[in-house]
Specification:
alpha/beta, Aspartate Aminotransferase, domain 1, Aspartate Aminotransferase, domain 2, globular
C-alpha cells in the first residue's frame, strides 16, 4: 500500500459523525443541517433539460479534452466574467473541463509535484482538506498558512520563511475563502505572482465561490484577472479551478474546469489521459447551457443575500457575527470549545454545524479554526431562520 495513506487525517464529516454519535436530540425539533456546503436551491430546469436532450451521448466515449463548444463557452465566460479581452483565454491550450473541482484539485497535485526534492505545498489554514490529502499522497510536506481575525482571514505571504518558499512547488489559495468568505485583492494576487516568479512555484487558485457574492457591483477578483491586468497575459504559473456546483446549484452534475498556464495544462492534460476522467457528453452539453446563462446566477445570489440578512438580523444581538463579502458560510466565533459547542447545539437544538478545528491544523502554536464553527446557509430560508432562532436560544442560556 502507498505509505502516505497512513498520513491522511479523517475527513471532517467523519469526525462530526463521531462527535454526534449516541446523542438523541429533541424529538419535537426537526433536524436542520448546516454543516455541509451542499447547495439546496433547485438546479435550473434549462440545465436539466439540456442534460436530458443529450442522453444519446451515453453511446459515445467522451474525450479527455472535452467538446470544443464546451471549452469555448468556458473561455468566453472566463474572459467576460474577469474583465479580459475576448480571446484572452485560448480554449485549445488554456482550458480543460473537469469532473468537479474536488477531482481536479486532487489530481492536479499528483501531476505537478516532483517528490524527489523535499517539496512543500503551501495552503491556507483553515482549508479544504483535499489540499492537504493531495499534497501528502504526492509525497509533499504541507505548510499551513494561518488565516486569522488579526490578518482579516487572509493569507500573510510575508510571514512565510524564505526556506519554505525555496522548497515550495505549489501554493493553494482559496478566494472567496472557505470557511471565511474573505476575498483576496489584486494587490495580494500580484504579490503572490512575483513570489511565484522568483521561487518557481505554481499557484492553484480555488475559485468555486466567486459567483456567490454580496455586492452585485463588486464581484470577487480572480487570479487570471489579476495576472492579465498586471501584464502576465500568458497566465504564467497560474491555474484556476471553477465549478458549476455552487454557481448553478448543480453539485451532482460534477462539472467544472481548470484554466491558465498553457504549459502547465499541457502536462496536466497528459496526466489526465491516463487518469481516466473524461466528462460524459450529456454533462458537457448541460454545462454549456449553464456557462452561457447568467440570469439564474443572479437569482441564486439574491437567495443567499436574503438568507444572510435574515440569519444575521436574528443573531446580531446574541453574538459577534458579521456578513462575509462572498460564499454561503458564516464563520462564527464560539464562547466555548468549538467541538463542544457543535455537540451541545445538536443535543439541545437539533442543529448541525461544523467545528472549525476540524477544518484546520495546529500551526505556529495555534489552531486558527478553534473556537469557531462553520455554518453553511444552504437550507431553505425558512430553515435558516428557524436555525438562527434556535442558535440564539442556545447562546442566551
Amino acid at each position: 500500500m502507498n505509505p502516505h495513506l497512513s498520513q491522511l487525517h479523517p475527513y471532517p464529516f467523519e469526525k462530526l459523525a463521531t462527535l454526534k454519535q449516541g446523542i438523541a436530540p429533541p424529538a419535537d425539533k426537526a433536524h436542520i443541517a448546516l454543516s455541509i456546503g451542499e447547495p439546496k436551491h433547485a438546479t435550473p430546469h434549462f440545465i436539466q433539460e439540456a442534460l436530458i436532450r443529450h442522453l444519446h451521448g451515453l453511446t459515445l466515449y467522451p474525450t479527455t479534452k472535452g467538446l470544443p463548444e464546451l471549452r469555448q463557452a468556458i473561455a468566453d465566460w472566463t474572459c467576460h466574467r474577469f474583465q479580459m479581452s475576448t480571446g484572452s483565454v485560448d480554449c485549445e491550450t488554456q482550458v480543460l473541463p473537469v469532473n468537479g473541482t474536488r477531482e481536479a484539485l486532487f489530481s492536479f497535485v499528483q501531476a505537478v509535484i516532483d517528490p524527489r526534492d523535499r517539496p512543500v505545498v503551501i495552503m491556507p489554514n483553515p482549508f479544504y482538506q483535499i489540499y492537504e490529502g493531495a499534497a501528502l499522497l504526492a509525497g509533499a510536506e504541507p505548510y499551513y498558512l494561518n488565516t486569522t481575525a488579526e490578518n482579516d482571514y487572509l493569507p500573510d505571504f510575508d510571514s512565510v520563511p524564505e526556506a519554505i518558499w525555496r522548497r515550495c512547488q505549489l501554493i493553494f489559495i482559496c478566494s472567496p475563502g472557505n470557511p471565511t468568505g474573505t476575498v483576496m485583492s489584486q494587490a495580494q494576487h500580484v504579490q503572490l505572482l512575483a513570489l511565484a516568479e522568483k521561487y518557481g512555484f505554481i499557484i492553484a487558485s480555488d475559485e468555486c465561490y466567486t459567483e456567490l457574492y454580496d455586492d452585485e457591483a463588486n464581484p470577487p477578483q480572480g487570479l487570471l484577472q489579476s495576472a492579465w491586468h498586471s501584464g502576465n497575459t500568458a497566465f504564467k504559473r497560474c491555474v484556476i479551478f471553477q465549478s458549476l456546483s455552487k454557481r448553478s446549484n448543480a453539485p451532482g452534475l460534477r462539472s467544472g474546469f481548470v484554466a491558465g498556464d498553457a504549459g502547465v495544462l499541457g502536462q496536466y492534460f497528459k496526466y489526465r489521459t491516463y487518469h481516466g476522467c473524461p466528462m460524459p457528453v450529456s454533462t458537457q452539453q448541460a454545462s454549456i447551457a449553464a456557462w452561457n446563462d447568467e440570469e439564474h446566477v443572479k437569482h441564486n445570489r439574491q437567495l443567499y443575500r436574503d438568507k444572510f440578512t435574515a440569519f444575521i438580523d436574528i443573531l446580531q444581538d446574541a453574538c459577534e457575527i458579521s456578513r462575509p463579502p462572498a460564499s454561503f458560510y458564516v464563520w462564527l466565533k464560539t464562547p466555548m470549545d468549538d467541538a463542544g459547542f457543535a455537540q451541545k447545539l445538536f443535543a439541545e437544538q437539533n442543529v448541525t454545524v461544523l467545528p472549525g478545528s476540524y477544518l484546520s491544523r495546529d500551526s505556529n502554536g495555534i489552531n486558527p479554526g478553534a473556537n469557531h464553527v462553520r455554518i453553511a446557509l444552504v437550507a431553505p430560508i425558512e430553515e435558516c431562520v428557524e436555525a438562527a432562532q434556535r442558535i440564539k436560544e442556545f447562546l442566551t442560556k
